[in-house]
């Protein structure tokens, strides 16, 4: 049995690492995911206050991209004024332990 080489064909077509970085790369996306995991469903303004240094445009774009790839669920309630909450999908929940490991590594090594 051949040992799997994790960096074989890195960044090539079909590379899982490249796919993940394309989805969660960018300012604030990992922080958005971890905040929602920690606090539960959050509204836009709550996220804006908590994610330091992110602009309104960047936050809105990040949320749309995370929703489009199936990591964040946007729920709009039929109320006036309209209430919208963002929560994690089951797929995102499987990513959180990996992000927390990266956080721990950063605290210990950077």
Written description of the protein model:
The protein has 110 residues and is mainly α. Helices cover 55% and strands 11% of the residues. The chain contains five helices and two strands. The chain has helices spanning 16-24, 29-39, 44-50, 56-68, 90-109; strands at 72-77, 83-88. A two-stranded antiparallel sheet has the order 1-2. β1 (72-77) and β2 (83-88) form a beta hairpin. The radius of gyration is 16 Å and the shape is globular. The chain starts with 15 loop residues before the first helix and ends with a helix.
Q: Assign the structural class, choosing from mainly alpha, mainly beta, alpha/beta, alpha+beta, or little secondary structure.
A: mainly alpha
What percentage of the residues does DSSP assign to strands (E)?
5-15%
- Oligomeric nature of the chains: single chain
Stretches where pLDDT is under 50 for at least 5 consecutive residues are none
- Strand arrangement, largest sheet? 1-2
Overall spatial form: globular
Helical coverage, percent range: 40-55%
Q: Total helix count?
A: 5
What topology does this entry show?
Elements lengths: L15 H9 L4 H11 L4 H7 L5 H13 L3 E6 L5 E6 L1 H20 L1
Antiparallel strand pairs: 1-2
Helix pairs in contact: 2-5
Q: Which characteristics define this entry?
A:
two-stranded antiparallel sheet; 110 residues; 55% helix; 5 helices
Give a quick summary of the entry:
The chain has 110 residues and is mainly alpha-helical. It contains 5 helices and 2 strands, in the order H-H-H-H-E-E-H.
């Amino acid at each position: 049995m051949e040992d799997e080489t994790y960096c074989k064909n890195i960044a090539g077509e079909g590379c899982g690492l490249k796919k993940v970085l394309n989805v969660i790369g960018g300012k604030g996306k990992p922080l958005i995911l971890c905040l929602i995991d920690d606090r539960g469903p959050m509204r836009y303004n709550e996220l804006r206050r908590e994610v330091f240094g992110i602009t309104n445009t960047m936050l809105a774009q990040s949320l749309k991209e995370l929703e489009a790839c199936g990591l964040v669920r946007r729920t709009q309630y039929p109320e006036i004024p309209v209430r919208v909450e963002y929560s994690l999908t089951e797929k995102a929940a499987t990513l959180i332990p990996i992000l927390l490991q990266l956080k721990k590594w950063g605290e210990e090594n950077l």
